Amino acid sequence: MELLHPAEKIKNCSLAMALISYQALSYLEATPVHKGESYLVAARFDDEYVKENGRWYFKKVKLTPYFMVPLKEGWAQEDRLKMGR
């Protein structure tokens, strides 16, 4: 499964389904602009969903960032979480 947005991609979504709940694992790649500077972003989502009254809802969303760094610096460095500081 791959969902596309001009600056974001969620890839390799795997699902473990049950009748009233399921868990999903997906990966995010994004190329946002923050304060006029281009960034590279990669992260993992671990989501839990629950079905109530026939509708699916998020029960839990966990985001684990791998890197958020300026494009000009790349991700091959020790400090990989720089965006938003």
Question: Could you characterize the architecture of this molecule?
Answer:
The protein has 85 residues and is mainly beta. The protein has a single domain, classed as Nuclear Transport Factor 2, Chain: A, CATH 3.10.450.50. Helix content is 0%, strand content 67%. The protein has no helices and six strands. Strands 1, 2, 3, 4, 5 and 6 form a six-stranded antiparallel β-sheet that branches. A hairpin with a 2-residue loop joins strand 1 and strand 2. The chain is elongated. The N and C termini lie far apart (32 Å). The N terminus is likely disordered.
Order of helices and strands: EEEEEE
Estimate percent helicity: under 10%
Terminus-to-terminus distance:
32 Å
Please tell me the total number of domains: 1
- Coarse structural class: mainly beta
CATH topology description: Nuclear Transport Factor 2, Chain: A
Task: Write down the overall mean pLDDT.
Answer: 81
Largest sheet, in brief, is: 6 strands, antiparallel
Rg, rounded, reads 16 Å
Number of strands: 6
Overall 3D form: elongated
How much beta, percentage-wise?
Answer: over 45%
Give the number of helices. Answer: 0
CATH-defined architecture: Roll
Low-confidence stretches: 1-8
CATH class membership: Alpha Beta
Features of the shown structure:
elongated; 6 strands; 85 residues; Nuclear Transport Factor 2, Chain: A; single chain; disordered N terminus; six-stranded antiparallel beta sheet; mainly beta
